[in-house]
Recover the amino acids of this structure.
């Protein structure tokens, strides 16, 4: 180890261990304060935090939000009678009550609320005396059989079948957009409270003979909030498993309790600091505290393991703690700094929810530098490991000598090339499968939830009973003031709609042109041949003057949305729509007519997919560059960097291949996993390489040095990798699918990063860092470690 490292560690060692009581008092006071602050932590959910606010699609929408409404943040409630159809007086009365209840929910854009009972759902027909129309439910409605017959006729004339009314007439839709800020309080809309209110409506009206099927972003968030309790349960399960395995590993109660306490202190500090900075946890970063705990345990095991080794060599508890601090401070600092800065590379993804996750993870890892590299050895300096644990460790070491001797063969000059060849095959397979990796959602409904969740069942009900799905892509068509009725503008929209209806995945297209053509047809005795745009400006002005058409353009007559109903929001569907719209806009945009993408929930998701597609490779380049530079600065060797980084890169590629096989796309919930896996996995390689380099500098040949590395650091690395994998694999049983997906991917990365450090690193060392003073023949003839 270099003189620089030694002097730095010696100074910090003296500063900390010569003032142990002061250090402990400082930690105690800081913990009390931050625990108090942590009680104020909040779990935040916001529609705008989930979307890329600076993407051109979202910028276009935000600039025109006052004229277009709330974008993709809508809720749809299908109200289905438990018996019969909607043409029943009791059903209609219940539907009216539900509509009134929804009207007063917090955050509802009441002017845009649509139901059979709202005045903006209208019918229109042509008679001998001209146009007639009005609300679908007439003012004379009284629930009688005659009123219900009139209602049926109005629904058939309104064009709402398949949109507001189910194709089989056995349910109808209440739909409403939400404001991001509650208009009544001016504060952010509380999605958990709104989702709870919707569930109260579901329970309330189930007793009155109707079933409610509710979909929309707010309901997804509400269901995810319910899953937060499950996340806490899984955290406790992981805590229990980790504690049990740590006790089995160390055989010492103190050596089990102290790392667990220090890791929990790190979590509490993280939550307290987030609260102090005015930040909170969202539905994705709520998983970060477990990762902080896992990283803390990982480094704690290394320190406990080293203290046990020094104690067995005869050191008293204080000396063992000081020597362990001196030996592990630099690799621990390097590993944790790599973790923290690596997590910060997620900031290149311009989505607030991922940025918050990056900040929360980086802050938590920074805290571990103090709690597990300083507090843990200070606490152990008083008690140390028990005599029974030392003897048990010695027996286990003797029992496992054959295991370590066998594994040390991985550094042998005949075995290492085979390992390199296998790794190259793994790289090739990962690169090949990476081309099959999809961006965005690959499943219908809400992929964050299980396929059999209530939400996805509700979504399946609505998509199965209505002609138009809940996946809406809105293209904004802009012109000059009072020009939206011009033939050129309306003809451009008409041609765009015709072209988009031929795109696979598009069910239907609706705009002001749709209504205008129906009106023109009506003005000509309903002859289908007249259902076309007229070049007569007076005819066009009249065609868009009715109330239905007026809902489809802004008050200045300069902006008209085209609503595309899509079969689903899968990545391929969205990309086809975006590509077709972009091609049409490139060919048809003029100074007078501009086609701009996009809003609606599908438009917002298309923007999110675009940001993730552009950022994923940049993020990986950044995280690997940061880790490589820090390793280079520490080890001052490009060969060392290759030995540490290559196993991580192999794991990343194989993880992406696994995502292809599991049908998991790269999206907001899964993109951070790779960065988190790299950040945690690099710890293994750093600890293994640091110890291996130390033994090589002592004059050992490679296999002997690696044998000693396995006996000391290697056993802790294997234990940590297996323990953390067992902890996160419990997530697979979570009711929240994105947590289950993260559990599978992190389990794989924890194990493979550990395997890479144990298996591939010594093989790379054979080619890159073997000592020059010992010939291959001498190495071959050296005594085999046993």
């Amino acid at each position: 180890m270099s003189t620089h490292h030694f002097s730095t560690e010696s100074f910090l060692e003296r500063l900390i261990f010569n003032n142990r009581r002061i250090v402990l008092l400082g930690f105690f006071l800081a913990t009390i304060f931050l625990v108090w602050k942590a009680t104020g932590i909040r779990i935040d959910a916001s529609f705008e935090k989930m979307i890329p606010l600076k993407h051109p699609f979202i910028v276009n929408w935000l600039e025109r939000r006052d004229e277009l409404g709330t974008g993709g943040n809508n809720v749809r409630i299908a109200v289905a009678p438990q018996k019969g159809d909607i043409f029943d007086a009791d059903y209609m009365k219940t539907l009216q009550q539900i509509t009134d209840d929804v009207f007063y929910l917090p955050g509802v854009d009441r002017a845009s609320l649509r139901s059979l009972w709202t005045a903006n759902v209208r019918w229109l027909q042509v008679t001998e005396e001209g146009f007639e129309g009005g609300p679908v439910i007439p003012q004379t409605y009284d629930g009688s059989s005659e009123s219900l017959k009139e209602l049926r006729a109005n629904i058939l004339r309104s064009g709402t079948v398949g949109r507001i009314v189910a194709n089989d007439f056995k349910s109808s839709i209440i739909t409403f957009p939400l404001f991001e800020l509650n208009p009544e309080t001016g504060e952010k809309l509380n999605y958990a409270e709104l989702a709870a209110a919707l569930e109260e409506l579901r329970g309330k009206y189930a007793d009155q003979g109707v079933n409610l099927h509710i979909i929309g972003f707010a309901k997804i968030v509400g269901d995810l909030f319910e899953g937060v309790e499950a996340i806490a349960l899984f955290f406790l399960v992981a805590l229990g498993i980790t504690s049990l395995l740590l006790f089995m590993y160390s055989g010492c109660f103190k050596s089990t309790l102290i790392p667990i306490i220090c890791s929990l202190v790190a979590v509490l500090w993280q939550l307290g600091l987030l609260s102090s900075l005015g930040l909170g946890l969202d539905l994705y970063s709520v998983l970060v505290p477990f990762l902080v705990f896992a990283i803390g345990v990982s480094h704690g095991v290394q320190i406990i393991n080293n203290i046990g080794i020094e104690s067995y060599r005869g050191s008293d508890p204080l000396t063992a703690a000081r020597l362990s601090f001196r030996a592990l401070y630099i690799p621990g600092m390097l590993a944790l700094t790599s973790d923290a800065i690596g997590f910060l590379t997620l900031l290149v993804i311009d989505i607030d929810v991922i940025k918050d996750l990056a900040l929360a993870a980086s802050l938590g890892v920074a805290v571990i530098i103090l709690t597990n590299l300083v507090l843990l050895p200070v606490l152990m300096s008083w008690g140390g490991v028990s005599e029974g644990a030392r003897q048990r460790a010695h027996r286990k070491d003797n029992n496992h000598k054959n295991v370590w001797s066998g594994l040390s063969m991985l550094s042998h000059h005949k075995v290492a090339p085979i390992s390199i060849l296998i790794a190259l095959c793994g790289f090739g397979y990962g690169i090949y499968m990476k081309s099959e990796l999809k961006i965005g959602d690959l499943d219908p409904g809400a992929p964050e939830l299980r396929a059999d969740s209530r939400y996805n069942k509700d979504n399946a009900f609505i998509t199965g009973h209505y002609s138009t799905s809940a996946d809406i892509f809105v293209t904004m068509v802009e012109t000059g003031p009072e020009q939206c009725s011009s033939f050129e503008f309306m003809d451009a929209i008409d041609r765009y709609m015709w072209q988009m209806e031929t795109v696979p995945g598009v069910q239907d297209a609706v705009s002001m042109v749709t209504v205008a053509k129906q009106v023109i047809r009506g003005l000509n005795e309903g002859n289908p041949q007249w259902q076309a745009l007229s070049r007569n400006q007076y005819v066009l002005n009249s065609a868009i003057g009715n109330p239905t058409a007026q809902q489809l353009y802004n008050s200045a007559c300069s902006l008209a949305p085209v609503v595309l109903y899509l079969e689903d929001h899968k990545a391929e569907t969205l990309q086809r729509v975006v590509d077709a719209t972009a091609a049409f806009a490139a060919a048809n945009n003029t100074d007078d007519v501009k086609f701009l993408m996009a809003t609606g929930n599908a438009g917002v998701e298309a923007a999110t997919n675009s940001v993730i597609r552009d950022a994923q490779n940049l993020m990986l380049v950044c995280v690997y560059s940061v880790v490589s530079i820090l390793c280079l600065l520490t080890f001052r060797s490009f060969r060392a960097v290759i030995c540490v980084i290559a196993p991580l890169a192999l794991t990343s590629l194989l993880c992406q291949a696994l995502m292809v096989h599991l049908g998991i796309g790269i999206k907001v919930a899964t993109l951070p996993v790779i960065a988190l896996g790299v950040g945690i996995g690099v710890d293994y390689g750093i600890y293994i390489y640091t110890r291996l380099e130390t033994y090589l500098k002592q004059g050992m040949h490679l296999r002997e040095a690696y044998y000693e590395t396995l006996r000391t650091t290697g056993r802790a690395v294997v234990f940590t990798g297996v323990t953390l994998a067992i902890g996160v694999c419990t997530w697979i049983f979570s009711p929240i699918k994105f947590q289950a997906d993260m559990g599978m991917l992190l389990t794989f990365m924890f194990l493979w990063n550990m395997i890479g450090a144990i298996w591939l690193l010594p093989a790379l060392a054979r080619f890159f860092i073997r000592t020059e003073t010992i010939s291959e023949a001498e190495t071959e003839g050296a005594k085999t470690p046993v």
